[in-house]
Structures are given as C-alpha cells and as structure tokens.
Amino acid sequence: MSSKTGNNGGGVSPSIRTALACVVAYLLGVALSPLVVPVDYFLRNLVANPPPPRADDANDTAVVVPRRPDHPRVESSSSSSSSSSIPDEPPTTAVPPLPPAGGRSHLDQSHASLLDRDSRDDGGVDPFSDVDIVVHRNGEPDPCSRQRGGAPGTTTTTTSRALLDSASAVPETTETETTTTARSGDSKHAFDAMLTLALTGNVASSSSSSSFPALLHDRGEGCGPTWTDPRAHDDAGGGAGLPSMLRYCDMGANRTTVQSDHELIVNVPGAGTRPCHFHTREGVRITGLGQLARLAREAGIPTTTTTSGGECAGGELPGDGGTCDATLTRRRELHLYAVPAGRVFMFAPRHVGEIFELKHVSVPLDLPVWLEVISLSPRVFDVFNFFDREESAAIVVRALAETSETHRMKRSSTGASGYNVNSKRTSENGFDTHGKVAQAVKRRCMTVLGFDEYEESLTDGLQVLRYNKTTAYIPHLDWIDDHQKQNEHDFDSEHLGTNRFATILLYMTDLNEGDGGETVFTEGWPVGVDEKDRIDFNDAKTALRESGDVAGILKEDSWEEQMVVRCRSRLSIRPHSSRAVLFYSQNPDGTPDQKSMHGGCPVISGEKWAANLWVWNGPRGGFEGSPKNQHVVERNRAAGVSQDNNQKKASFANTQTDEAMRNAQLYFQDTFWGKMGYGDPTLNVNTYKGHQWNVKVDEKTVKTFVIDDRPQQTHTI
Ligand SMILES: O=C(O)CCC(=O)C(=O)O
Ligand SMILES: [Fe+2]
User: Fold this and answer.
1) Which atom from ligand 1 is nearest to the alpha carbon of 467?
2) Which Gene3D superfamilies match (predicted)?
3) Range with the poorest average pLDDT among 54-63, 425-434, 672-681
4) Any domain includes 630
5) Residue to probe by mutation, ligand 1, list 464, 471, 473, most atoms within 8 Å of CB
C-alpha cells in the first residue's frame, strides 16, 4: 500500500495546485494506511516488543529481522569469550590506600571523593572494585587489550589508583567553550587525556619524575594503528618509543581531522600526543570520571560461585564453624571503545540480529530506541522508534509546500558539483534545512551516532526523496569521490579531508512486496538466506523475466531492470512509514567503505517517499574549519574567484540556430568540458561568479561567457 499522488486542482497556480493535491493525497494515504496494512508497522513498535520477523514474505528479499533477544547485552558474554586471545595476567597485589586528601595537592577533591572509599558516604565501595576495563578500537567488536586483573576491593583498586595518578599528571585546563576554568579532568578533553594516560601508563619524560604502571596489561600494545603508520619506525620523531595505543589515538598530523574542538584537545602528559576519546558500546561518549565510575557500577552482573568451609582471606571474619564461605566473584567488564582524536564513533557489531539499546536517545513518544544489526559488511542497522508517523507525514507535507528554487522537490542531481541531472537518478529530491521536524530529526541522528554535542557543520540538510513509478537511483556510494582533487573542499577522509561518514535513511511510505522501491545494498546479502541458497545475477534475472512483474514497465536490459534483479537477490530494505535505517560509508580509519554501495530500487507500483540525513566525519564545505585543497584554492584565487561565496549554477545549451556552432565545444578556460554541438545535451555545471567559460569551434574560441551574479543562469549559443 502506498499513497497515490493526485494531480487535478482548482484555480490556483499549477505548482501550488499540485503541491496541495499531493499534501491531501499523502495525508489520506497516511491516514488510511493502518486500515490497509494488515499489521501496522509503527503500531507494532508501540508495544515495547520488537516487530515480528518478516520471514513470512516468501519472495521478499527484504531483510528478515530476527527477534530481539531477552538479554540484549549479548556483547558481554561474547566479548569475554572473544577476549581469550588477550592473555589475562595474574591479579596484582593489593594497592595501598590513597594518601590523605590533604596530601593530594594536584588532585581535584571532587575526583578523589568519587573514588576514594574513605571519603564516600555510601560505605566507600570503590566503583572499580570488581570491574575490569576492556578496550576496543573504534568499530571493532573484539577487544584489543584489557586491564591486568585487579585485586578485589578491600582497598583502593589499581584502576582508581591509576585514574587518580593520571589525573594529577594532567595539567589544569581552561575550557574556552564554557569560559570557566576547570581543574584537571573536569573538562571532557582533560578527561580523555587522563583516561588514555591511565590505560597506557606514563611515558618517561624529563618533566615527569613519578612513574606508574599502565592499567592495560600490555600498555595498549594490542591497540595499535590499523593503518600503516610511518611513525612506527621513526625513532627521531619518538613515534617508535610510544605505546602503540598512543599512535592509534593520535593518527598523526596527516590524518587527524580538524574538528571544531581541535584547539581544546589536551595532550597525553609525557607523550605529548593527542588522546583517544571513549564511548560505550552504545555510543555514549564518556566525558568525565563521575560518568566512568557510574558506568563501572552498572557494568553487567558478576557471576558468582560460592563454596563453603574455605579458609578465611585476610581481613575476613570466620563464621560459626570457624571457616569462611569463600565467594569467588568473577570480575565484571566495562567495555570502552577508543576513538582516535578528531575521528567519529562507529558502532561495532558482532553478528546480525545483535541489539544496541540506545537508552540515551529520547524520541517524541518516549519509546525505547534501539539498533538491530542487519548486515556486518556493509554495516547496516535498523533504528527502531527513531521517528514516528506524525513526523514522517510532517516531513512530506513540508517538502511539498516548499517553493524556494534551491529547496523544492525537483529532478535529482548527483556528484560533488551537484547540479548535473543524472539519467541514473530519476527520482525527485528537495532539502529541508529549517523545518521543525527536520531539525529535531537531525539532532536525534547525531545522538544516535554517538555525538555528545550537536554539530551543525557535520550534517547536510535533510534530503527528501520522491520516487514515482519506474523511477530509481542507481547504486552509488554516498561518499563523494573527488580523487582528482578538483574541488576546493578536500573530500579525502582517509587523511585530513572530510566526507560523508554515515547515512540515516528515513522512509515515509509503506511499500508492499512487489511494489519495488527497496534500498538495495549490492555488496550485501539477504539476511536469513543460507550462503548456498544465494541467487546469482543471471538466475535472478531469469526468475524476474519469468514472473512478468516488470514486463511493460521496465525495458529489458535497462539499468532499471538490472536493478530490480539486484533488488531481488541482494540485501534490500523494504520501506515502511517511520522505518529508519543507518549505514556507514566509511571504515573506521576514514577510507571509503566500498561495500556500502547502495541504490533506490525502481518503484513498480505506487510511490515512495524517503529522506536521508548525511553525517560527515568533520566540517563539511562552507563551514569554518572545513579542509581545503590548497592548490584549487590558489588557482581560484589567481582567477579572482572565491568559491565559498559565489557559487552559481549555470546551464549551457545550443539552440541550433547558428550553423557555425554545429560542432561547438565548451571549455572551462582552456579545459575541455563537454560537447556543445547540435543535438548535444545541455551542460549543467556548478561554477563561480567571474569564471570564464569558452565556446570553441575547431579549437578557436568563438564566444566567452563570464558567470554573473544570478544564482542560476543559462547561456546559449
Ligand atoms: O531511495 C533510496 O532508497 C536510497 C537513496 C539514496 O541512496 C540517496 O539518496 O543517496
Ligand atoms: Fe545514497
């Protein structure tokens, strides 16, 4: 079932008439859809239980969503088993109690009281007394290192000791963003430095006289860079002497994305390198010691085994029989996901069907938001209860009412320089940058992705998409490829550039099996289908043709027909109103994830409305601090144009009235751009005020166009 677009209207202008008709038709569609869809998808989500599996659709290549397990923290058991590769060290001997508070001249008293059992009101239980810290690299389900086993809490734990020691080593910082002076560890940036230092231990330096051991049993050697790090062998630069984890946390001058808080980063004392920032498995950024202590208290339930009649341990009083009940407590685990400075948190799924409960994300209906893993490679997740039907309808209504030339719904374009209408993207799109719902959804999206603060420079406006019957969007990467570095903006996210990092796709209409319109991930495989039962392209094509489903609708061997074949044999997501899906376009190291290739399948029946939100790994073009290709900037400066302020859209067409222009060609200055002769398609470009476009015939310039002030301009010969 999907809403149908009406197109008859009264005496108003045709575009407003169409828009109004669409609004009414869409609302009717939304209002009626629960009556037509047997079990309404969203209502199913209203009950706290997850939706039932969708395996009942025999021919449905859409994802089969397994049930939510009763104990969603699947990670703790699996990670402890997977952690077998990391050798556990025998527990260290008990650490002496902290010195009296007065003796801690460097320490903020508030930190000390968080950890110091003597000064706590709750009986002084050290929050880390039976918890081991386990570290993962960003996006990795397997830990890379773990804490050496600590002594259970009769006294201050190794963890508290290390945290307090490292807190004392982090200098006082001034947080310019809050204009308050914070003591060491009070700011999230100082906290990052402190935790990184505690995990890896202090690095000998002339200025640090004290020495204390690393919390991690291997000082984080297992958590080294996953990319080739030139500093590993660079004795002169000191890189080789650093624990590997420090080289992971500080990706180096050529790879540390410059975020808006770059200047606030506090280096790891002794090492002088940038620290990691740390997130929970669910993406929550850990910004202070109090929060870390809270997480430690909440970390899982310890497994205990009790044997009676044992010997009494030191300090334990014997029971009636003169013996002690020895309670063997298996230590709990606090998993931290370490993200290099300047980089962005990424979920670390282990298996399809895995759940991530996002208790920190609030939505209008106060329903729990959770992720369910649809695919590991590409990384794709369903985001349950991300938005509701009301918001879904509001997005469509606003898109239809939009009249501004830059934002209204119109034939889609693609590419870094945007404006080229593409024959392989036949849908329509528009942008919602200021709508109330769009704003709310953008903020929610950032929270889901693990940002502790909203950052406008990291998101595009909400892009709204409409697909009518037969329209589609050929498989592509959302990551923008500018490998020749032709743009002022530097898109090379592996290094200092920024690019699209993650996409949240929102669906606003219900499409039934056979209606088409799925989002297909052409490198992914359908869930729940055995490897041996996967269908190859040719068999799927034969089956499609035999079914006759697209006969008379799509041309044989057209790219659209080929897409339907893929949509029916590869991982595809069927739209439902208020369904949201998250996927990543980059790997954790910033390289593009080629497996994230995806497209919008041709709509066979009805209409599809969707929207996407692209989140970048750093400031996108036009925002302060966005990375630039300096050579292009210089070139433009020499040509007297500034790209940021003067971008224009220009179309060049041949009216076929001047015989001398029969074989004309368009050049940007002296660079060939495209054929502009009789019968050649209009050339659409993004260009800049003052740019010169030359028309040449037989290599001689016959006409020059200079781009003027108009935002959109057409030049003809
Ligand atoms: O419509 C879809 O399902 C996908 C849209 C998409 O990939 C895009 O707009 O980048
Ligand atoms: Fe896309």
Assistant:
1) 1
2) q2cbj1_9rhob like domain
3) 54-63
4) no
5) 473
> Residues with Cβ within 6 A of ligand 1?
465, 473, 478, 519, 598, 600, 610, 612
Nearest-angstrom CA–CA distance, 507 and 716: 40
How many domains would you assign to the chain?
Answer: 3
Among 77-81, 285-289, 583-587, 648-652, the minimum mean pLDDT is found in: 77-81
Output b/e per residue, 43-67; b: 16+ Cβ within 10 A: eebeeeebbeebeeeeebbbbbbbe
| Atom 1 of ligand 1, nearest CA residue | 600
Per-residue pLDDT band for 350 (boundaries 50, 70, 90) equals very high
Same domain, residue pair 378 and 305: no
Which of 519, 521, 522 is the pocket-test mutation for ligand 1 (most atoms within 8 Å of CB)?
A: 519
pLDDT at site 127: 86
Atom of ligand 1 nearest to the CA of 612: 9
Which of 582, 616, 650 is the endpoint of a domain? 616
Note the ipTM here. Answer: 0.99
Ligand 2 centroid to 592 CA: how many Å? 13
- Ligand 2 centroid–CA 582 distance in Å is 11
Whether 661 and 583 share a structural domain: no
Range with the lowest mean pLDDT among 112-121, 375-384, 573-582, 587-596?
Answer: 112-121
**CA of 120 relative to ligand 1 center, distance in Å:** 54
Non-local (6+) Cβ contacts of 404 within 8 A are none
- Whole-number Å distance, alpha carbon 463 to ligand 2 midpoint, is 11
CA distances in angstroms from 226 to 203, 256, 461, 485, listed in the order given? 22, 14, 33, 25
Q: Which domain does 58 fall in, by range?
A: 39-66+352-616
**Residue 677 pLDDT > 90:** yes
Q: How far is the CA of 426 from the centre of ligand 1 (A)?
A: 11
3-state secondary structure 434-460: CCHHHHHHHHHHHHHCCCCCCCHHHEC
Q: How many CB atoms lie within 10 A of CB 85?
A: 9
20 within some domain = no
> Whose C-alpha lies nearest to ligand 1, atom 5?
600
Which atom from ligand 1 is nearest to the alpha carbon of 476? Answer: 7
Q: Indicate whether 490 and 543 sit together in one domain.
A: yes
Number of CB atoms found within 10 A of residue 171's CB: 13
Cβ contacts of 79 within 8 Å, gap of 6 or more = 134, 141, 142, 143, 333, 335, 350
